[in-house]
Design a protein that fits this description.
Strand content: 25-35%
Mean pLDDT: 82
Structural class: alpha+beta
Helix content: 10-25%
Shape: globular
Number of strands: 9
Radius of gyration: 18 Å
Distance between the termini: 38 Å
Low-confidence stretches: 1-12, 16-24, 26-35
């Protein structure tokens, strides 16, 4: 299923297109800042996909983990942070609550293009906990308008994250207590010690083909920023 909060099935690949949203590079903690520079391009989008066959309850766990990981990345954007933070906190454990406010940083003007989050492996390290290997592919590509008017492109073809979700009734980060067990995001999957060899071994076999990297067309006629 490829998900934009609307599910659609494409062959054997389960795709879930997540709603279009502004967000920075998964490896870039810099954030947007106000400017008068025109950037008439569509917002950066995230697409979530499941590349392996799954049945319930793992399917629901993986769908939830993908959505939450995408939202975790969306939280790096100032506007998205304030728009979705309360909803996000109702679905995450206190220990992984995202309290950083990206509006306190200055880095870029805006971003366009998109990234693809693809679930490629699933395991259960303990009862009630599901760990998902999520390859974050730089396709169709991320393009950043910097404050000097230049446009930068993300270089790395992909990143690997291993978020975990738990079937539990324990309270969420916002203090809410559910009526019964539900999936809770308990680990954002960032492992700074992960080697490039591990990333290649996990993500390369599932890399989209063709691996498209193309800046989207502008939403209105314009000259190229910085040109």
């Amino acid at each position: 299923m490829r998900r934009a909060y609307v599910a659609a099935v494409t062959g054997a690949l389960i795709v879930l297109p997540l709603a279009a949203c502004d967000a920075p590079d998964p490896e870039d903690s810099s954030t947007a800042t106000s400017t008068t520079i025109a950037f008439p391009y569509p917002a950066l989008q995230f697409y979530t996909e499941i590349a392996i066959p799954l049945e319930e309850p793992r399917l629901s766990a993986v769908e939830f983990a993908l959505d939450m990981k995408a939202n975790d990345l969306r939280m790096l954007d100032p506007q998205e942070f304030h728009a979705i933070r309360e909803e996000f906190r109702a679905k995450v454990a206190p220990e992984v609550d995202n309290n950083r406010d990206p509006s306190l940083s200055i880095g870029y003007v805006d971003k366009t293009g998109g990234v693809t989050l693809r679930a490629v492996e699933v395991r259960e390290p303990e009862e009630g906990v599901v760990e998902v290997s999520v390859c974050i592919y730089n396709t169709p590509g991320q393009y950043t308008l910097h404050i000097d008017g230049s446009i930068g492109e993300a270089v790395k073809p992909y990143h690997l994250r291993r978020p975990r979700v738990q079937w539990t009734d324990r309270p969420a980060a916002d203090g809410s207590v559910p009526d019964g067990p539900r999936w809770l995001f308990v680990d954002d999957g960032v492992d700074l010690s992960m080697t490039d060899e591990i990333k290649v071994g996990v993500c390369e076999p599932f890399k989209p083909d063709p691996f498209i990297q193309k800046m989207p067309d502008p939403t209105e006629p314009t000259t190229t920023p910085g040109g």
